[in-house]
Specification:
The complex is a heterodimer of chains A (441) and B (184). Chain A is 42% helix and 16% strand. Chain A is of the alpha/beta class and 441 residues long. Chain A has a 7-stranded parallel sheet with strand order 3-2-1-6-7-8-9, sandwiched between helices. A 6-stranded parallel sheet of chain A has the order 12-11-10-13-14-15, sandwiched between helices. In chain A, helix 1 packs across helix 16 and helix 8 packs across helix 14. The longest helix of chain A has 25 residues. Chain A has 2 domains: 229 residues, 3-Layer(aba) Sandwich (Rossmann fold); 184 residues, Rossmann fold (3-Layer(aba) Sandwich), CATH 3.40.50. Chain B is 77% helix and 0% strand. Chain B has 6 helices and no strands. The longest helix of chain B is centred in the N-terminal third of the chain and has 61 residues. The chains are: A alpha/beta (441), B mainly alpha (184). The interface between A and B is large, with 39 and 39 residues. Chain A: It comes from Actinocrinis puniceicyclus. Chain A: Pfam families: Glyco_trans_1_4 (PF13692), Glyco_transf_4 (PF13439). Chain A: This is Glycosyltransferase family 4 protein.
Chain lengths: 441, 184
């Protein structure tokens, strides 16, 4: 199958959507499909052979955060050329609800379309102004996918209509088979009820309060007070000096900042720790880092966000604590560090529940959607005459409609230009589900 | 007199332009609606195809000789009824098939036994995939119905009969929840 995928966010900036697109493309190519990804990237950025650059993205303030926009007609022309040259059987758009490359492709494409909604921007009054412009474009999408039940609810409430839930994919075996690093593991005998230690991991941008590191750092001295040898390993971009400022001197030695880590080190870290903590305070629509930790066999202690609760199956596959409650975090962490049996039980439960997130399953589901959409469209375009409205005739009806729309879409494009026609999505840190902290490949 | 005529001409031109613009707008709305009808037809074709696939997979499993005879008879009957059901019984019959499948596959151990043979593993895999696809296809179908109805509800669509003779389609409401033991 010839598949075109549109990634709205700059390829060279790490983020959840970009990684999803990258891994999906790699898996589909592995299954023997022809895949082309259209993404914003500087022309001198090295990109994999399957990526087509849509040009440089320009940062512009949009809806409360900085969006990187691919402006107007040049981008629109690149999108049209990509669609034309690709002659795709199906086009898969990511985040077409935001003003982005995906929206441009949605306007221009006449082939069957599938769209994945990773998250929706919080509803704002300014954005409802763009809704009448968005709607005719979004109507063209044949199948809508949400990455979580939570993302689906957001979509239903904000844009209307329904979507099927197909989660983000994770390469479970990559994490399950990673080798623990001795310097990141707790020395034997130091954990459990009689030990005084344990290792807690955190991965995420340390200067982004939504990722919740301040809550964990507030709780950490209490944990050290009860188990003096406990270590905290923090991986992620950001100013470590500033982050460590709130820590009492006595526990500063127990905290190690690792900076940005590679995919391999990330997996090794998750394999090594006794406990993975996700103290995020909000803004998550899925929580892929939890699935990665669970795949690696790290017991998870996370905030009771809706999105996390769904991944942790309401607490069966990982423990949860009230959002922002450092005392509860400390208590739960101490309980888990003292009880290896409970950790093992969580690990088993998590190991079973992550299987549905494995790329083999997720890519299979997404392919089923592609097949359904392309097969049924092929049948309808050849057998349609009986369904014709008055004034429309013959089997070419789909094309007639599309061509007519095409001629008017330039008008719509003009109207849309000011409030969201030609642009390229908020920065991943803004609205996107972007809880992964990995280096770009 | 000349002045009045000029004003009159301007008015005519203005009205003509407005009518033309509204005509373009109506035509564009009709195009949107037409495209949604095409999308709905495609979604219905996909849903029918997946339902057929599901009943075929059920029938094949029932006739494989791998199930006990009572279960086989129940499933074969349910699958056959789904294939021959009249249009107005579709929802009832497909829900019944789903429930029979859930009743037949409620024991994880029995399912593991069935999956133990290569043929059984294939058949169960095919049935599970078909059931998942029914769920996906039904969502897409009902979403299309909703989108069509929304536009057909517009005043300009009703007054100018932009929907033409395309029939108003209903959503397809069935129980399509697969057996819990199929969860991967």
């Amino acid at each position: 199958m010839k598949i075109g995928i549109v990634c709205p966010y700059a390829w060279d900036v790490p983020g959840g959507v970009q990684f999803h697109v990258r891994d999906l493309a790699a898996h589909l190519i592995g299954l023997g499909h022809e895949v082309s990804v259209l993404a914003p990237a500087d022309d001198d950025t090295p990109v994999p052979p399957y990526v087509v650059s849509a040009g440089r993205a320009v940062p512009v303030p949009y809806n409360g955060s900085v969006a990187r926009l691919n402006f107007g007609f040049l981008s629109a022309a690149r999108v049209r050329r990509w669609l034309h040259e690709g002659a795709f059987d199906v086009v898969h758009l990511h985040e077409p609800g935001t003003p982005s490359l995906s929206l441009l492709a949605c306007w221009a494409a006449t082939v069957p379309m599938v769209a994945t909604f990773h998250t929706a921007n919080p509803r704002s009054r300014a954005m409802t102004a763009a809704y009448p412009i968005l709607q005719p474009a979004l109507e063209k999408i044949n199948a809508r996918i949400a990455v979580s039940e939570y993302a689906r609810r957001t979509l239903v409430e904000h844009l209307g209509g329904d979507a099927v839930v197909i989660p983000n994919g994770v390469d479970v075996s990559f994490f399950a088979n990673a080798r623990p690093r001795p310097d990141w593991t707790t020395p034997p005998g130091d954990d459990g009820p009689d030990g005084t230690g344990g290792t807690i991991g955190f991965i995420g941008r340390i200067d982004e309060p939504r990722k919740g590191l301040p809550v964990l750092l507030e709780a950490f001295p209490r944990i050290v007070a009860a188990r003096p040898a406990t270590r905290l390993l923090v991986a992620g971009r950001g100013d470590t000096e500033e982050a460590a400022e709130s820590l009492p001197d006595a526990v500063r030695g127990n905290v190690t900042f690792l900076g940005m880590v590679s995919d391999e080190d990330k997996a090794a870290l998750l394999r090594s720790v006794d406990l993975y903590c996700a103290p995020n305070t909000g803004g998550e629509s899925f929580g892929i880092i939890l699935v990665e930790a669970m795949s690696a066999g790290a017991p998870v202690l996370a905030t009771d966000l809706d999105a996390f609760s769904l991944v942790l199956e309401g607490g069966q596959a990982g423990l949860m604590f009230p959002n922002g409650d450092a005392a509860a975090l400390a208590e739960a962490a101490l309980g888990l560090l003292a009880e290896p049996v409970r950790r093992a039980a969580l690990r088993d439960a998590a190991g079973r529940s992550v299987l549905k997130y494995d790329w083999s399953v997720v890519a299979g589901d997404i392919l089923s959607v592609y097949e359904m959409v392309t097969e049924s469209n092929a049948q309808v375009s050849t057998t349609r005459p009986s369904m014709a409205r008055p004034g429309h005739t013959g089997a070419g009806i789909t094309r007639t409609g599309s061509a007519r729309f095409g001629s008017l879409s330039s008008l719509g494009g003009l109207v849309g230009f000011g409030s969201g026609g030609g642009s390229d999505g908020p920065e991943p840190g803004g609205g996107a589900d972007n809880d992964s902290e990995r280096s770009p490949r | 007199m000349k002045l009045v005529l000029t004003q009159y001409t301007e008015l005519v031109v203005l009205v003509a332009v407005l009518v033309l613009l509204y005509g373009v707008y109506l035509s564009w709305t009709a195009t949107r609606l037409d495209r949604l009808h095409v999308r709905l037809d495609a979604a219905r074709v996909a849903l029918d195809a997946q339902l057929v696939r599901r009943s075929a997979a059920t029938l094949e499993l029932a006739r494989s000789g791998l199930l006990d005879v009572a279960t086989a008879v129940i499933l074969a009957t349910a699958a056959r009824s789904s294939q021959i059901a009249a249009e107005d019984e579709r929802e009832y019959v497909e829900s019944a098939l789903t429930r029979d499948l859930r009743a037949a596959f409620d024991d994880p151990e029995e399912l593991d036994q069935l999956r133990g043979t290569p043929e059984g593993a294939d058949l169960v895999q095919e049935l599970a995939a078909a059931m998942r696809r029914v769920q996906l296809a039904r969502r897409f179908h009902n979403e299309s119905v909703r989108a069509v109805r929304q536009i057909r509800g517009y005043r300009r669509v009703r007054y100018f009969r932009l929907a033409g003779r395309a029939p108003d389609k209903a959503t397809f409401e069935i129980d399509d929840e697969p057996p819990a033991v199929f969860a991967r």
